[in-house]
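Chain A, query sequence.
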Amino acid sequence: MGKAVSILTKNLKNINIDTIDDYLAAGGYEGLKKVLTLTPTEVIEKVKNSGLKGRGGAAFPTGKKWEEAAKVKEDSYILCNADEGEPGTFKDRYFLEFDPYRIIEGMTIAAYAVGGREGYIYIREEYGKQKEIIIRAIDNAKARGLLGNNILDSDICFNIKVISGAGAFICGETTALIQSIEGGGGRPKIKFKRTAESGLFGKPTLANNIESYCVVTTLFTDDAEQYLSLGTDESRGTKVISLCGNVENPGVYEVPFGITLREIIYDIGGGIKDGRDFKFAQIGGASGPIIPKSMMDLKYSYEDFKKEGYSIGSGAVLVADDTNSVADFMVTVQEFFVHESCGKCTPCREGNRQLLKIAHKVAEKKATQEDLITVKRVANVMKNCSFCGLGTAAPTVMVTAIQHFYDMFD
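Chain A, predicted structure.
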């Protein structure tokens, strides 16, 4: 595990989260104190210069998102997406459970930078224990004057509420998440205006992922120099990953961008479980690509994945050994998307059903050449016409399986 680092994750399982004292002793809120000596514009510039991209999967430049929110002459809602519904992804859960104050501090920094007085943490229903922990952390922060009115004896006032979802995968999409908080069905909607202008309750809204807020907190601490010294020119810093599947050492790890998949699997993960052979890895959750053995030296960075037409996604790294069937895996993934599609748009609703039928035919060795052509045609329609990211990314497994494991279709 020598390739892994511990900067964002240094507090995980190392502090007592029942009280805020351990977090403060570990340097907690030094970042916010520094932020309050800067202007909001200076804070946003530092985030922009860091090159931080959203860690929830979309990889949109965080500083640019904050800059857009700050232009609106009205207080913004500060949302934290803690839905984490992507299969194989569990790294945000660790921050909720073992370092909740870092999330709260990051949201407070965002509130100062863009102008916000009220925040929401949207957490999936299955995270019952983690919800209780973050609520206690919010209460502890308030009791110390680190949340609420006149934070750190300043003019800054900011409060956070915790909202539970109902476990719908689609609510990881920002507009669906907003609909859910408002009491509506968790379905995406057309953005007639940017979320920065009109989001939650029709008001300006800034939404980021848990890990993104944790990075922001780190950028204003003494750890920032070490953090930004890692990575590549276009992917600075580190990524927290959820390593799972047929590896000896599954778990949550912080890795520098630029590390190879081989290093993640063998140096950090300890290799394939029980000494078996590597078959494939899926990167970024159910909506991510399948990576074959021939691509194990692909560097884990935004730019290297982009060259291949792939996305790093949420940070999941699911490893499969040679006992696994690619065809059966495709069936499982497509069953998931058929179940989780909200049904609002035809390309996603019907496209996933058609892909599942073909996946079953492949698994039963009944697929034809025409079926493979249909997969590509349906995937193209879904990518270009689906209402949200669920539909555009759902065909990724089947498309990359055809690309890298064509022999299974014989």
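The chain has three domains: 21-228, 238-321, 326-409. The longest strand covers residues 116-123.
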